[in-house]
Each structure stands twice: as structure tokens, then as C-alpha cells.
Design brief:
The chain has 120 residues and is mainly α. It contains 4 helices and no strands.
């Protein structure tokens, strides 16, 4: 799950940066305000990559998805992009957990039969 979710967050990092550039040009907000909010969101994306497996990590990711959709009030295209990334986040969490469960079953079966686990 961690790899899929972290990939989504890295994609969001770049989208937030580009949305900040758009917001700076098209909104009434000052550049300092835009970059403070965008910068915090971008740093949050990076920090979340490291805490995904800890309690509350996925929930913080959902909060970020909600904020990304809400940023559409400043940059209207973010309604669409935020919804796309929320869908990617759901898929990353959902299918990532399935992959983790399959890996655990495979490891348990390999341990029960005494086979060595493949590298990777």
C-alpha cells in the first residue's frame, strides 16, 4: 500500500505546485498567501509519504484529498484534478491493501512449506 499511496502523493506534490502558479496569476490572493498554503500542502504530501503505515496516516491522506478538491474554489480546474486524485487515493489504499494481504499470504505459505522467499 505504501508504494501506491506514496506515488499518488508525489503526483499531488507536483499538481499542487502547478496549481499554485495558476492561482498566483488568476486569483486575488497575494503571492505570499498562495505559496504559504501551497507550500504547506506540498510539504504535507512529502511528510505523508513517510507516515503512511502509521496510525492515522491514511486518514491524513483523505484530509489532503478533501483540501485538494476544495482548492477548486481558487483554481476551478482543481475540482476535476482533486476528484481524480481522490479516486487515485482510494484505488491506492484499496488495491494496496489487497497486495499487502496477498504478500502476507504468500510469505505465510512459503514459511509453512520451508521455501525461501524470492528477492524483491
Amino acid at each position: 500500500m505504501r508504494t501506491l499511496c506514496a506515488s499518488t502523493l508525489i503526483g499531488e506534490f507536483f499538481v499542487i505546485g502547478f496549481a499554485g502558479l495558476v492561482a498566483m496569476q488568476t486569483s486575488e490572493l497575494s503571492a505570499a498567501t498562495v505559496w504559504t498554503v501551497s507550500g504547506i500542502a506540498m510539504v504535507l504530501c512529502l511528510l505523508l509519504c513517510g507516515v503512511l503505515t502509521r496510525p492515522g496516516g491514511v486518514q491524513l491522506g483523505w484530509a489532503l484529498q478533501i483540501a485538494l478538491v476544495a482548492s477548486g474554489f481558487v483554481v476551478p480546474a482543481m475540482f476535476f484534478l482533486g476528484a481524480c486524485f481522490a479516486g487515485l487515493w482510494w484505488a491506492s489504499v484499496h488495491f494496496g491493501r489487497k497486495v499487502d494481504e496477498a504478500k502476507a499470504r504468500f510469505a505465510a505459505a512459503a514459511a509453512a512449506t520451508g521455501e525461501a522467499e524470492p528477492a524483491g
